[in-house]
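call fold(seq) -> tokens
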Amino acid sequence: MPAENTLKTAAGHSGDRPRSTVREWTDFIVTLIVMVFFIRVTTVEAFRIPTGSMEDTLLVGDFLLVNKFVYGVRTPDWLGVPFTKFGFSIPSYKFDGPRSVQSGDIVVFRYPRNPELNYIKRCVAGPGQTVEIRLRQVFVDGQLFENPAFSKHTREMAPLGIAERGMFGQPPGIPWNRDNYGPITVPAGHYFMMGDNRDNSEDSRFWGFVPQDNIVGQALVIYFSYNKYVDLSHWYDIIRWGRIGTMIH
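ret:
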């Protein structure tokens, strides 16, 4: 009897009415959105590869998870309606991470000439280091920077002494090109980035250094990949099953 009385009292008390299903689902969805937003801001975020500048390390249609914690968490710098452009900028702060960007890391960053765009490249050199490219060989502080395993060239080599337009930092009268570049020293708080597809990458050779504040995170793993160039008659080849779960190096 006491138990029955307790149940009746709990159910009948006007201040303790069971919440409606709609309210419960609303609370769940709001909580889920907040959790996803928190994880996205502080820990990991998903990105998609739209161009071939990192081939054949990363392919068009690869979907990546990026570790945003390793280089330091950044507080939100924009407040508004998710997945829209309705909002406004707010002051932001970036905390120090467990480590800084290292030479060889594949990094997602905000494009220096348009911070609304995210780029992904490989870090070649960091603050205070000197980069030089001679006959396609990259040297950092005079030491050979080994070409990544899946990097490639798709054009004939640009010869020494032939200038290419638009090379960043090119001194007057000195003929630099994508295959013969520098030497150039990376300033404090900046990084020099290059794409693994060396002849099809707009990178630091063309638009300059990446500020530390523009760093978003380190590419971690491919969680999905599809080949948009496959004919629909071969639909079973659209998903690149062998790339799913591949760690990025």
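Confidence is low (pLDDT under 50) at residues 1-15.
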